[in-house]
Structure formats: C-alpha cells, structure tokens
From TrEMBL:
One of its GO terms (cellular component) is membrane. InterPro entries: Bact_2-comp_sensor_kinase, HATPase_C_sf, Sig_transdc_His_kin_internal. This is Putative signal transduction histidine kinase. The chain crosses the membrane at residues 24-43, 63-85, 97-117, 137-156. Keywords: Kinase, Membrane, Transferase, Transmembrane, Transmembrane helix. It holds the Pfam family His_kinase. The keyword Zinc does not apply. It comes from the Bacteria.
Amino acid sequence: MNNEISYFTGVLGIYIRWCTWQRIGYLVVVGFFSGLMVVQTEIADALIRGEIGLTWQPWVATYSSVISFIIVSPFLIYSCELWPFGKAHVIKTTIKLALLYIPITLCFITIMLILRNSIHLMIDGTLFDSWDLIDRYIYEFPKALTIYLIFIFVTYTKINYDHSQREQLNAANLQNELHTIRMQTLRSQLQPHFLFNTLNLISSTVYQDADKADSIIARLGDLLRYSLASEQKPFVTFKEELQAMQSYLEISQLRFDERMALEIAISPATKLVLIPTMLLQPLLENAVKYGIEPSNEIGKIILESTLKNGLLEIKITNPLRQRTQQQESFGIGLQNTKDRLKLLYQEQASVSLESNHHDQITLTLILPAQYLENTHE
C-alpha cells in the first residue's frame, strides 16, 4: 500500500513539475499538427462515404483524443523515467509498461469521451454517439495501443539521449578538471626546480662577491613576482614572457660573467602572440646548464622568434658541450615543457632538438599563433 501511495504521490509531483509552459506549448504544437493530419484523413474518408454534411465532428473527434493524451502523458513519462529499460531491466520494465497500459488507456478514453460528449451537447444538444459505453471502451481500448507504443519509444529515446548528453558533459568537465590539475602540477614542479638552482647560485656567490649576490637576489625577486602575478594566467604575450626572462638571463650572466654571451633576435610580429606562462624559463635554463656551465670556454646563447604561416617559431641555440647527456637526458624542465604543450595544443605544437656543425644545438618550439581579442600586429 505504501508503495502505491509513494508511486501516485510521485506521479502527482512529476505532473506538477513537468507541466511548464514550455512543455505544454511543445505538446500543443506537436498535437495540433498531428491532429491536423488525422483530421484531413477523417474528412476525406467521410467524403468518400458520402457524409458531406460533416464539418466540425472530425475536429472534435480528433482533438479530443489529442488533448486527452496530452493530459495523461506526464504520468507515462514519469513511469518511463522511473523504470529503466536497460538490458538488466528489459523484461521487468516491459511487464510494468504492459500493465500500465490498462490504467493509462482507461483514463485516456474516459477523458476523451467526456470531452467529446460535452462538446457535442454544447453544439447540437446530442451525445457523441449512441453506442453503449462498454462497447465504446472495448472499441477504443486496442486503438490506443499504437499511440501508446510510439509514445513510449519516443520517451525512452529522449531519456537515453539526455542521459548520453549528461555523461558527455560530465566527462568533459572531468577532463577539464584533470587537465587543470595536470597543468598546475607541471607548473608547481618547474618553480621549485628553478628556485633550487638559483638559491644554489646565490649560496655559491654570496661569500665571494656580495654585490653580485645582491644583484642575483634582486633579479630573482623580479622573476618570482612575475611567476606569482601570472599564477592565474595560463597564457601571456611573448613580449611579457621575454621581459621576465631577461631577469633570468641576467642572473646567469652575473654567474658566468664573460663566459656567457647572449644574442636576442625577436621579430616584432611575435611580441603579441600568446604563449604558456613560464614556457621559456626551463628551456633557457637547459641552454645554460648544458651549453655554458660544463666548460670554461666562452659560449653564446641565441634566442630567436619568427612568425610563419600562422605559427610562432622560437629557437634557442647554445654550445654543444655534452651531446650524449643533452640528447638523452632532457631533465624535468624540457620534459614538462613537452607535456604542457601536449596538453594545451595536442598535435599542433612541436619541440625538436637539432645539432649544428657539431658545436651547437638548437631547440625549436613551434606553436599556433594565438592572440588576445582585438589585439593583433
């Protein structure tokens, strides 16, 4: 008994929630055009039978059926939503829907007959027909089966479609969350890595040259401020990134003095292109680590950028001191850069290393050229 009360309470609740103006309007439109096609058929059949005097009767007969089914349809929709139709429930749900056909159809016929007879009484003072009421129910009962089955099919199709859309949306949201977490993890790995190396540099110079250590600390502060300010910005312009990296390069030059030469050739067309924040830092760090640090000879680091066919190309060239180590062990900085670009651009970005004349190695980054809105040089 409690189950029946719970079911009918749920039916009433879903009926109230379901009957919004938008849904009612949708059913009215669908019912109107469906009924219109049926009415035309009824009128044509009547003319063939010679019932030329029929005018409003086919309209009453058809639209009383349409309105009646609209009234009972929320109960059927609620039942379809309540009873899943998957492989594990197909037999049980089929039995339930077969049994539900009885009360739904009885309600549908009852409402339909009330509407038909009421309208006939108001128009010409007669009943819809002279049939016995039981005969009319017996006649109408199997006729409703086709509409019932079509409605169930459409309803379950809509339910499955909505469920599929929600799953796709949830999967997309989950993928975005995982993507964000992954990006944050990569960035959080880069910052301690760079900070550790810089602090070691400060430690090694503070007692030998206090002024140099002060300069390094000042530039480190500039770089950390940039990193913190861009914490919530996944992308910055190439110009902003380059300005911040000047601090890093100056730190390196303070460390190696005349051993490190620097050449920067930046195309003006690339300055407003958006790139991932802190993209250049680990790459420049690798250039210093593998190109300058291992040798007492003078080495030059070259940073270039060009714009070709909608692609930003960045090249970082440094002396090739330890070819095997440089090519086989990229370290956390370069590996994280590859991972970041893979997450952000999929196959549209690339990272490559190429040795030149056996004494230099060039790292080439190629990214899609993207800009802020209304900002393009």
